[in-house]
Amino acid sequence: MTTTTPSTSVSPLRQRMQHDMMMRGLSPRTQRQYVRNVQRFAAYLGRPPDTATSEDLRNFQIHQHECGANAGTINSTVSALRFFYTVTLRRRDLARGLVATRRPHTVREVLSVEEAARLLEAAPGIKYKAALGVAYGAGLRVSEVAHLKVDDIDSQRMLIRVENGKGGRDRNAMLSPPLLELLRIWWREGKRRGVMFPHGWLFPGRSYTDPISARQLHRAVQEAAEVAGIKRRISPHTLRHSFATHLLEQDVDIRVIQVLLGHAKIDTTAIYTKVSTKTIQAVTSPLDRIIALMEGKERAASPPG
Description:
This protein has helices spanning 12-23, 28-45, 54-66, 71-88, 92-95, 113-121, 126-138, 142-146, 177-193, 214-228, 236-249, 254-261, 266-269, 277-281, 286-301; strands at 153-154, 159-162, 171-174. By secondary structure, it is mainly alpha-helical. The chain folds into two domains: 12-95, DNA polymerase, domain 1 (Orthogonal Bundle); 113-280, Intergrase catalytic core (hpI Integrase, Chain A, Orthogonal Bundle), CATH 1.10.443.10. The protein has a three-stranded antiparallel β-sheet with strand order 1-2-3. A hairpin with a 4-residue loop joins strand 1 and strand 2. The longest helix has 18 residues, at 28-45.
């Protein structure tokens, strides 16, 4: 599978893989990622990937680890190569040798309610305040925020329509009255600037024909965190984590949070129980019961005074 340029045609092998992905409903983003990963393997191999052996695949995975590739990169490559060899080439024997690596389990960074307020207040301009407000107020992923359109805001039903989210799934996210008001302020300002149009992007990029980029949102969070005096390393995704954690601390049912976040499995949502300080504080330590028993015995043994 060779890298193509506008002056070269797509190889039959790459075209076959693209057709296989399209027929199975993989999202355009996943398709691009799979193609890039197979191209990287072909570049390492120095020849077409359909000529690879099981030893070639093993050596490539060892090469990734030796080069310090993180777990996300390695597992993304494994998924792409598994698809390529299992589906496109029908070489399940080669795919069996691919090994995904375990991600390190780290506690997710979460802002306090006060920190979230300071961050939004410090956002560089009303557009970014509204965009980060959606990330925190509705729990959207950065890519979902970036690709919202004006028509996705349903003020009648107080919902935000998220189309083609992770896994290609559509869902409804919550739209609170304060968030709606913030979006209306941005709408009026965007109209004044001449960048907001009916059926257009809710958060246009440098050109109104393109959506804001994830990189721009990341940069806005970094700037706001610095102004707000938040020293920890955070990203737009931190706002999504904070949304879920704060809902959990308000005793919102975890199954409701699962739907709002668009998680396919409850296990994914359950990670937020690990970072909810209220959940931790609500647990009674077994030591408390022992001390209570000891104190009860001491009171019973002491003479009445």
